[in-house]
Amino acid sequence: MNPEPRWRRLEPDERRAQILACARRLFGERHYEAVSTTELARESGVARGLINHYFGTKRELYLEVVRELMFIPEFAVERLAHGSVEERASASIERFLAVIERNRAMWLATVGTGGYGRDPDVEQIMQEADEIAADRMIETVGLAGLTEGREELRAMIRSFSGMAKVATREWLIRRTLTRDQVQFMLATLLATIITEVHGRMFGPLSTFRPDSAAVDRLT
Question: How many C-beta atoms lie closer than 10 Å to residue 55's C-beta?
Answer without folding.
Answer: 21
